[in-house]
Task: inverse folding
């Protein structure tokens, strides 16, 4: 599976961005997908995930109510709508295949390789 994230940019606090991830090599309807982020000097951290069926999603606590993950099966794309952005959301954002996701949890392969991310910078 090849993953290409895009849509990042620089915004003021309170602004919005929409990130997109094009998935190649597998159909999206067979994949649980997630978004992760990595701030400078930090490890990758989970942000949001959506099930292969699209009917279950899971978010880290500090983005609930602000971020929404969605998918476009026709375009084989996973999106992350980010609203009310905060400076602490600043990071490089990546999409990744998950091993499972439900409304209460998400799991992923810790050894998975990361594709190209997209930079999100939020200024105060």
Result:
């Amino acid at each position: 599976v090849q993953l290409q994230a895009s849509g990042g940019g620089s915004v003021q606090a309170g602004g919005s961005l929409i990130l997109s991830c094009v998935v190649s090599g597998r159909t999206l309807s067979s994949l649980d997908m997630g978004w992760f982020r990595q701030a400078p000097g930090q490890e990758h951290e989970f942000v949001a995930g959506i099930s292969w069926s699209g009917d279950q999603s899971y978010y880290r606590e500090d983005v609930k109510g602000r971020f929404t993950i969605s998918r476009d099966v026709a375009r084989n794309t996973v999106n992350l709508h980010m609203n009310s952005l905060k400076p602490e959301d600043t990071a490089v954002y990546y999409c990744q295949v998950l091993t499972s996701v439900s409304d209460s949890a998400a799991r992923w392969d810790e050894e998975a390789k990361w594709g190209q991310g997209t930079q999100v910078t939020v200024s105060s």
